Amino acid sequence: MAEELKVNISEPVEAQRLAVRIIARMGPDSGSWLSNAMSRPGAGLEDDAKEFLRACLSLGSELREEPDRYGTVDKVCRSILRRQRNGAAVSKDEYGAALGNLTRVQRRRLEKGEATLSYKNVTAICSGFTDKNLQRFWENQLLVLFPSISTAGRGGDVEWRGLRWLCTALGKSTRYKDILNSLDEADRESIGAIATVTEAEPPSQFGDKPRELYEVIHHLAGDAGLIIPALAEDQLRVRVNTWYAWRKEWVKAEKGGFKNGVPKNRLKRIHMMYMSALFGLDYYKSIWFLALAGYGYTPGQEPDDEVIRCLRDASGAKTRGELMEYLMNGYTANRFTQAII
Predict the structure, then answer these.
(1) pTM (2 decimals)?
(2) Contacts by 208-217 with C-beta closer than 8 Å and gap 24+?
């Protein structure tokens, strides 16, 4: 079974965010440029990737005029429903219901940033799209706001293929360098990291079963001279009984391809970041590592920027020890974690 497991390392949410950012920076003529480039003989772009880039073009055009248009869960959810209902107005209670019959208290906690969605909530509100490409596109827009959601077992790489094609096509013009330079440094680095990771095999450092989360953790812990009880309780502050309960549920779901969803009780994204620093992983290997648990990085957010800077050995970045202390302090203070609705 281990050889059949697939890990989504293509960073779909981040790839979509970057594609939209690039198109927004291209300016108002991006539509005609993109249409011409995609229709050229030998463009080498699959139909699903074309649909993805058209959706990115539409969103990029909107964000060029109004950068914060989709910056909150309220705005994204109501936009999703308006598109499904041909522009009809949507109330807050309606979008709460579409997320999975949330109560008003749950919806308000969500809007205040006191709670996070589950992947089931995301798929519920986007299920009204008859076009599967649009459904996935708007799932991604919600997932941008909730990086703590695990999408283990989701699969698919249309976003990465679209981003790679876009960068390759733009690279043939003199405009590409100017467009890239207009992006934040974190965005430029993220483009490079995604391109590198998606074309590589799992790191050899991950052991004989590099696509199974707990096997990899056990292997890396051994290399670091740690036994699991010490890793769980002393480092991650997770009770040993809880660790093994989480492990049991995760392994069961993993072996079944997550057909019944991702376990609600699981290692959090902050745990994975902490172990990346503890095990001495670089940014490239850490992307792989987080993806085993269905997570990814979102540059521009806390604590992601601090973690990325450290793992990339950037000038002035925190040391590994300082990063682990920063992450654990944030974890115990509930700054980096939220309860699931």
Answers:
(1) 0.92
(2) 209/2, 210/288, 211/2, 211/5, 211/6, 211/7, 211/292, 212/2, 212/5, 212/251, 212/254, 212/292, 213/250, 213/254, 213/267, 213/292, 213/293, 214/247, 214/250, 214/251, 215/2, 216/289, 216/292, 217/275
